[in-house]
Each structure stands twice: as C-alpha cells, then as structure tokens.
Amino acid sequence: MSLLKLENISYGYIDGNNKRMILKNLNYTFERGRFYSILGPSGSGKTTLLAIAGGLEKCQEGKVFFEEKNVNDIGLGKYRRDYLSFVFQQFNLIPYLSAVENVVNVMEITDNQVPKPYYKTALNLLNQFGIVKTKAERSIYKLSGGEQQRVAIARGLATNVDLIMADEPTGNLDTATEKEIIKIFRLLAEEYDKCVIVVTHSDSIADFSDIQLKLNEGKLTERM
C-alpha cells in the first residue's frame, strides 16, 4: 500500500497577463522505507510541490492521498500535525527553548501516542542523533548548525510519524556535516521504515538516496 500518493496535481502562478503552470497533471506514489530526493532547476516548483504534498499549500487541481485517504478529508491541520514532519534549511527551532524543550514541545501537541515521560523520551531520542544530555539542555544558540539540524530531525521523529519531508536541509551546512545529515536520512528510511522526501540542489544527497526524482516542465520523473 502506498504511503503518499499525488494524483493529477496541477499548480500555477499569475505572471503578468498569463498563468505560468509549474506543476502539470503530476502523478507519483511514495512508499515507506525509501529515501527520495527531488532535484530540478530553480523555479521548477520543487518547494511548491513539497508544500502541496505536506499540506502547507492547496493544489489548484488534483488530490493528495495519505494511506489512501484524501488529506482534505483528514484535515490539513491534523495532517500536518499528526501524519508528517518537516525539516527546513533554517531549522525553524523555537529560539528561547533548549534543544530538549523543542522536542518535548511537539510531543505535547500531537494527537499521536508518544511514550511518557516526554522529557526522558526526548533526551533518549536526541542521544540517538549525537546530542548528549549536556547539549540537549543547552540553549539552541549554543549548538552548531549541524547540531541544530539534528535537533530538528529528532523533533520530526518525536511525534511518531511515518513521513519526513525536508526542504534543502543541508543548504547552510558544511560538506562534512552534510554527509552526517544524509546518513541520518538514510537511517530513517532503512532502520525506522520512514518515507523520507528531500528537495535539494545537492548531488551528494541525490546520489545517496534510494530514488532520484527530477522535476522539470511540471512533471516528476525518476532519474536512471
């Protein structure tokens, strides 16, 4: 059974007197246990596609299905909160909270079952990604960019979701740290059976993914 299905997705922008279509009757099915990378030229619609797949933006035509349920029927707010997690280039952590508090925060608002006590569960999760207790209890500002991205990934897993989406997650990181983050995404797919979808310009991420997808002229195709 598919985890995420995009069916006849179309989307465009008004450009002067014309409507520029960046997604054209796009279809694709994503499965658990796979690490997908989506590449394409700037302006091709990669971020828009991710936003539609993740319920941040409504498609103008077509449908998005999660486990064969239309996400509009699930409710976009509930879909974003309980069914998937986003990892962004800018991390999007809450700056006045510590690393562990950032993770606990999402545990407290999800409807999914998360082991209690939340604080201990969050510490254990962060530790799996190399953020030990002394670092977990520090201010976000006292962590490196790579450490903050690990916190963001741990936060993404904290609500016990099957779908992880990332938009240019290594864009602000050096090459060595990028490789570490790529390994984590691979681990999430292989060991945790998650579906990981990463929008990227990085060939390093693409080469390490299970399936490379190219978005061009509104269509999504697998790179051979």
From TrEMBL:
Superkingdom as given in the UniProt entry: Bacteria
Gene source species: Vallitalea longa
SUPFAM superfamilies (UniProt xref): P-loop containing nucleoside triphosphate hydrolases (SSF52540)
Name of the protein: ABC transporter ATP-binding protein
Keyword Nucleotide-binding assigned: yes
Similarity comment text for this entry: Belongs to the ABC transporter superfamily.
Keyword Nucleotide-binding in record: yes
Keyword tags: ATP-binding, Nucleotide-binding, Transport
GO MF assignments: ATP binding; ATP hydrolysis activity
